[in-house]
Every structure is written in structure tokens, then in C-alpha cells.
Amino acid sequence: MKTLKAVAVAAIVVIALGVVAGIITWVVLSQRNPPLPPPELKPLDWWEHCALYQIYPRSFKDSDGDGIGDLQGIISELEHFKDAGVDAIWMSPIFESPMVDFGYDISNFYEIHYEYGTMEDFEELLAKAHGLGIRVLLDFVPNHASTESEYFIKSVAMEEGYEDYFIWADALPDPNNASNRLPPSNWVSQFGGSAWEWNEQRQQYYLHQFAIEQADFNFRNQAVRDEMFNIMEFWLDKGADGFRVDALPYLIEADPADHNGSYPDDPLSGLIQFEPHQLGYTIPLYTKDLIELYEIVYEWREFVDKYLKDNGGDTRVLFSEGYANVTMTMLYYGNEEGEIGAHFPFNFDFVTDLSAKSNARDFVYIILRWLTYMPYGGVANWVFGNHDNNRMPTRFRENMVDGLNALNMLLPGVAVTYQGEEIGMRDGYVSWEDTVDVEACNRGDPDTYHLYSRDPARTPYHWNDSMNAGFSTANRTWLPVAEDYPEINLAKQKASERSHFKVYQSLTAIRDSPTLSHGEYDIRALSDRTLYLVRYLRASDTLVLLFNVGERPDSVVLSRVPHLTLPATVYVSSIHSSRVNGDRIDGETLTLAAGEMVVLTAAPVS
Fold first, then answer.
1. From 77, 246, 266, 596, active-site residue
2. Does residue 246 have an active-site annotation?
3. Which CATH code, of 3.10.50.30, 3.40.50.2020, 2.60.40.1180, 1.20.1250.20, is assigned to 517-602?
């Protein structure tokens, strides 16, 4: 027995000595390998992680009671952007225009449209915005000019230097009627009808890929390209921080020199539901996404970079608009030969490829597609709506507003907000009698106009529940105010304990976190309904977004979310969530209501 006791005691001593030795070894190793310090973070340029807000000036705020928004109206509400956490604004066109396409038909690229104010108003806006730390971008529309512009008038008259400023072509003979003339090709306008319009004075057709009153510039003419530099330089000299560049896919058309001196017909789509005058009847092989247009964008980038070098100050940016397939879109960033393009092309995938019918896997696929195709060193961006498409809550569902805004703010890169998304504005109803959109009027009729109209996404901003939602004191506004403004308006949401606007503020506030500006990402679908987005960075809080995009509740297992250690804390949640800011989450599963999102903060990754 004594022998057994001795053996037991000896064993205990050996174990104890082993434990002590282990502790000593751990202490020594930990001293040799102390915890890693926080990572060194590369300073970002102002635009690389900004919250960018699109203003549609005509509908933002009316200062003079004429029913039309204006620059002084924007000036009066600049604090809204500071309050919302916005870093930069870009305004749809404010230049002199007959307003056929509400500013996208520019008659004078160097003047402010009189309904919006004066050059002095613009200079005041710049000064006050910059004083608040808010950058100001302008909408640059290089593809076309108004037929009331001096450029076009001089081109019609064949004045020296302007003869080929636009795309002109002779009529084709009609083989069935010698007295009749035919357009140079079968090209169809984006607004319906032939893309060619006869000019009686010049006795030729001119090209207009949009409205008849919007004549396409000839970018094979160096004088036109030089004038675009002049226009950009003028507004940069005024103090603009850069440009959003409109309608780039249509900048260049087929060169007649490559087609026996004529403009080739686009191939037919074969879709029997379309007639020859309707968009969709042809495939725009010769009128859209031609490779030569990217060289022009690269020239513009070279120009703004040289402007910065010559004038100093902060980076002036180019953000390009182009609805194209992912391969052609990525070329706006630059090419494999090292030519650099726009600072980024707008990412419209949430607009064109996702809807209320999309499931969580669709969302993840569309997000990863952009991040996969984006070139090394590129900056991503996320767009959920604009002035050309139905508003975000209308395309998706109203209970998804906070989740969509959370995705926008937590994904890497630039978060783009269209006017009203911060308060969950929905499309307004605009009758046929009140419709003013040229696309709806050209392509539709009283029974079909709503299929094409962009007016519902352009109705005035809801400031409060007073007359005209606080937008204007006019008896009649240029578009009717949406009927839901008493329930959905900024003042009410500021006063409410929980609101879309307060969620939006929380989301922009957390963008200052190094986790979001510099961290890694992981995104997957946990089910058909719920996705997770994890943002993580060593020595900085981990942020986890859980978002049920479905129409039914969904329970998810939290252990399946990588880098999430429990307990975690609710940072912000959807306004219809049962969870509130500060709630502790430590259970194995979490059940999310339809459309619900929750943003959690958790311990840093090691």
C-alpha cells in the first residue's frame, strides 16, 4: 500500500511539475511573441470610402415658390447632409436647358439654368458645402447637346469648324417610292422611334440616341473632344470636386469609313413583341459599348489628374455611368495596357439584377460578381436607386429599406444614396395628365405610359407634413407630391424614437470604423432568405450584418457565421425589429422577421 501511495504521490508531483513547466513555457513564448499590434492602415483618398448622395435639384427644395427646386433650396438644406453623415453630393444637371429631358438636354454647358438660379448661387453653394466638409460633384453630359445649343445651330448652318460637330448623314433612297427618303440606318432611339431626324435646312439626318431635341456629338471630331476638356476645366476652376459622367455607352457609334461609307443596320433581335420603331427591335451592335469610347474616358482621367498636378488641392474625380455587361463595365476602370479610366463606374447591379423576388443567394452572387471582376486596386461602389428607375422600396419591399441601406453602408467602397432613400421614400403616383417625362410621352400612351415613366422616382422630397411636404409654397409643383408624405417625411422621422433616418444616421456614423474603411469581408447566404456580411480587421471590432431578404421569418444558426464570437451586441436594427440598440446576443440561433436586418458588434479577430 505504501508503495502504491508513493507511486500516486510521485505521479501527482510529475503532473504538477508538467503544469508548472507549461505555464512557464507559455509565459516565455508570450513574451517572445506578444499579441500582434494593430495593422498599419493606408490613408484613403477622400472619395474611396465616402457616402455619396445624389440630388435631383428640381425635386429637392424650392426656395422661391415657383414649384421647382433650385440651388438656394439646396443651400438652405445643406445641414441635412451633415446631419445624415453624407460626405459628398452630386447634382443632376443644373445647366441651361430647354428642359425637354429636364436638364439632360443642355443648351449652354457654361451657364446655370435660370429656374435653378444664377452662377452666384452656385458659387455660394460650393463655398457653404465646402465649409461643411461636403464635396460637390456635377453631372457632366458629353454624349449630346440640345438642338437649341449654339453648337447645333452653327452645325446646321455649316459654319466653319462646326460642320461635323454632330453625326450627320444623307438620306437613303426608298426603293419603293422614289419621292420618299429613308433614314441612314435602322437604329432605334432609347426613347423610341428612329434615332435619326431629318433637318430641312441642312437637308440631312442627324443622330439622336435619346430625344429628338438631343443631338449626338461626333466624338471622332477632335474639336468636340477639345471642347469637352474646356467644359470640365471651366467647372473645375469654379471649384467643383469632379463629375458624374452621363450616358457613356452611347458616346461612339460605328464609323462609316469601316462600312463602305454608310452606317450599318443593327441586327434584329428577333423578339416579335417589338415593332421597328420600338427599343428592343434591334440589338445595338453599332450604337452602344463600342471599344473606342473607353479611350475617350481614359483621356478624361488623364486630364483631371493633370489638372490636380497643375492646380493642387484634393483629388478631382470622374464617376462614370454605363449600363453594360460586367466585362464592358469594368473597362471603365482601365485596361490591361495600364491606361486608367474613371475613378469608378457606377454599379447598377442592385437596380438591374435584383428585385423583391430575389433570394439571399441572388444577393450574394450579384455582390461577389462585382468584387470578383473588379480590377486589383479598384474601388467598389453600390447603387440602389436613381432618377431613372423606380425607388428602392418600390422595387424591393418597404420592410427591406433598413437592410438595403445597411448593405450599402457596410459593403467595401463607396455608398451611393439617391434622394429620399434615407427616409424610405416610395414612388409617387403621377397621372398621364401630370406626366412630363419625355421617355414616357414618346414610348407610351394613357394606358402604357407607367411602364416607361421616370416621373414617379422624381416626385418632390418629403421634408415635413405641411403643404407640399415642405418642398414648396406653390399652388402646383412641377410634379405632384406623393400622397404618403404625411407618414413618410424627414421631420417625423427625426422626432420618432426609431425611424429609417435614424437607422441611416447610425449606419453612416459607423463608417468611420477602420473595420469598414480597411477591413476584410466575408459574405454568404445562410439560407434562401438570410445572408450575412462580416467585416473584420485585427484589433478593431468585428461587424456582422444579418439580413432576411425573404417574405417569411427565418431562424439562423450563429455558429455558421465566421469571425462572430458571442456574446455580441446589437449596434442597430430595422425599425420593425424586436431587438434594439445595445441588446446582448448570446443564443445559438437568431430568428429574423421578414425584411429584418441586424448589425452586430463583436470582439476583434485575433
1. 246
2. yes
3. 2.60.40.1180
